TrEMBL record:
<dbReference type="InterPro" id="IPR013766">
    <property type="entry name" value="Thioredoxin_domain"/>
</dbReference>
<protein>
    <recommendedName>
        <fullName>thioredoxin-dependent peroxiredoxin</fullName>
        <ecNumber>1.11.1.24</ecNumber>
    </recommendedName>
</protein>
<dbReference type="GO" id="GO:0008379">
    <property type="term" value="F:thioredoxin peroxidase activity"/>
</dbReference>
<keyword id="KW-0676">Redox-active center</keyword>
<dbReference type="InterPro" id="IPR024706">
    <property type="entry name" value="Peroxiredoxin_AhpC-typ"/>
</dbReference>
<dbReference type="GO" id="GO:0034599">
    <property type="term" value="P:cellular response to oxidative stress"/>
</dbReference>
<dbReference type="InterPro" id="IPR036249">
    <property type="entry name" value="Thioredoxin-like_sf"/>
</dbReference>
<dbReference type="GO" id="GO:0005737">
    <property type="term" value="C:cytoplasm"/>
</dbReference>
<keyword id="KW-0560">Oxidoreductase</keyword>
<keyword id="KW-0049">Antioxidant</keyword>
<dbReference type="InterPro" id="IPR050924">
    <property type="entry name" value="Peroxiredoxin_BCP/PrxQ"/>
</dbReference>
<dbReference type="InterPro" id="IPR000866">
    <property type="entry name" value="AhpC/TSA"/>
</dbReference>
<keyword id="KW-0575">Peroxidase</keyword>
<dbReference type="Pfam" id="PF00578">
    <property type="entry name" value="AhpC-TSA"/>
</dbReference>
<dbReference type="GO" id="GO:0045454">
    <property type="term" value="P:cell redox homeostasis"/>
</dbReference>
<feature type="active site" description="Cysteine sulfenic acid (-SOH) intermediate; for peroxidase activity">
    <location>
        <position position="45"/>
    </location>
</feature>
<keyword id="KW-1015">Disulfide bond</keyword>
């Protein structure tokens, strides 16, 4: 797994709207919250996504781009995003290559892990918890506050 203090691995994929996504497009411009979750529209993943949505106004204050990654296809992401009015990007990782880059594969279930990346592309925090999906946004906000004050 990439470690805190290391450069975030770069990747390209496709978003829920079918657009090309490249992490490198955001480096140097925004802080990034990159979160990996197991599956669209399942109880824990819905709670996690909705926690990010419900804290959206706070997140916006930190000049952040939030990106959710799962192996679901674009159609599934689009439906999930519309159903819960999610204001952030969902990226499809059907071949699990992005998960491999971040060593977020998991054993039985895919990992639920969040990376907070600063504007320079450096990983500032990693939070891994399968059982506490709502804590991911809280951990991200704490780290974004530290970045803002440093």
């Amino acid at each position: 797994m990439p470690k805190v203090g290391e450069k975030a691995p770069l990747f390209e994929s496709v978003t829920d709207s079918g657009e090309k996504f490249a992490l490198s497009d955001f480096i140097g411009k925004h802080n990034i919250v990159l979160y990996f979750y197991p599956k669209d529209d399942t109880p824990g993943c819905t709670r996690e996504a909705c926690a990010f949505r419900d804290n959206w106004d706070l997140l916006k204050g930190y000049d952040v781009v939030v990106v959710g990654v799962s192996s679901d296809d674009i159609d599934s992401h689009k439906k999930f995003k519309q159903k819960y009015n999610l204001p952030f990007i969902l990226v499809s990782d059907p071949d699990k290559k992005i998960r491999e880059l971040y060593d977020a594969k998991g054993f039985i279930l895919p990992d639920r892990v969040t990376f907070v990346i600063d504007k320079q592309g450096i990983i500032r925090h990693i939070y891994k918890s399968q059982m506490n999906p709502e804590n991911h946004v809280k951990e991200a906000l704490k780290t974004l506050e530290k970045i803002k004050n440093s």
